[in-house]
Amino acid sequence: MNYKHAYHAGNFADVVKHALLTQLLYQLSSKGKPYYVLDAYAGRGLYKLNSDEAKATREAKAGIELLVEHCANSDQPIPKTVQRYLNTLAVAKETYDKHVYPGSPWWIAHEVETQADTVAIRAEAFESQANEYDALNYQLFKLPIGIHHRNAFEGITAVIPPKEKRGLILLDPPFEQEHKDFSRLVDLLVASYKKWPQGSYALWYPIKNKEAVSVFHKKMKRTGIKKQLICELNVYPNDVPVGMNGTGMLIINPPWKFDNYANDILKYLQPILKPKDAPSMSTEEAFNVRWLVSE
Ligand SMILES: C[S@@+](CC[C@H](N)C(=O)[O-])C[C@H]1O[C@@H](n2cnc3c(N)ncnc32)[C@H](O)[C@@H]1O
What we know:
Elements: H1 12-30, E1 35-39, E2 46-48, H2 52-57, H3 64-73, H4 80-95, E3 100-102, H5 104-114, E4 121-127, H6 130-140, E5 146-149, H7 152-159, E6 167-171, H8 178-195, E7 200-207, H9 210-221, E8 228-234, E9 246-252, H10 258-273, H11 283-286, E10 287-293
Bound molecules: S-adenosylmethionine.
C-alpha cells in the first residue's frame, strides 16, 4: 500500500467527514462523562494545502476552499456544527499557518484539549504505514492523543471495550480495492461490535461504484447490528464517470438525535460542494441521512 492522504486533504469528502466528526465529538462531550476515542486510520495529522502533493490534485479547491469562500461571500446562515468546524479550522491555521488543513487525529486531539476542564477524553490513533506514522508522531506528539504504529485489523479489537465504557471508533480506510475492503470492514465491524456493543463506530466510505456500496449496505443489514445510520452526500450523479461521486459514513450507535444534525450539515454543504458543471440530482441522490437498521 502506498496511499498518501496528502493528495486528498481538504477535499469535499474530508469536509463532510470532519464536519460529521465535529458533531459526533460535540455530542459525546456534551454528556460530561469520560469517554474514549480511537482514530483507527489516522494519516499524518496535519497537511499543507500548498504542498506538492496538494498542488498535484488541487482537490481542496473543490472542498474546504470552496466552503470558506462561500461563507465569506454569503449571508446564508451557517448551521452551528459547520460553524464549529470552521472555527476549529481557524484555530489550526492560527496555530500552524494559513495553508494548514488538519487531519482527523488533530480534530480529535483538539476536542480533548478544549474539553479538558469538563470531560475526560482518552484518545488514541493508529497508523500502519511507517512513513505516515513517523510524520503523525512528529507533528502531533505534543498533543493529548496516544499515537501507535499499529494495524487497525489487529488493533481495534485488542483495545476494546475501553475502561470508560463510552466512546467512538473512527474508521477511515484508504479503499484501494473497494469490493475486498468493504467485505473486510464488515467483518471488522462485526468482530468489534461483538466485543463492545455499546460503542459508537463511524466508518467513512467513498461513493464511486453504486453497486459496491449497495452490496456493503446489504451485508451490514444482515449482521444483526442495530442502530446503523447512513449519511451520504453526492457531488456528481452516480452515472457520471468521475474519480469519486460522493462520500458516505455509516454510524453504528450514533448519539441521540445525531441524525437530525447530520441532515442539517449535509443539506447545507451539498449545494456548496457540488461543482458548477455537475448535472442536477434529485434531493434523495444529492444527500440523504437514513437508518439502515433502526432499533
Ligand atoms: C484516508 S487516510 C486517513 C485520513 C484521516 N483519517 C483524516 O481524516 O485526516 C487512511 C490512512 O490509513 C492508513 N492505513 C491503511 N491501512 C491501515 C490499517 N490496516 N491500519 C491502520 N492504518 C491504516 C493509511 O496509511 C492512511 O494514512
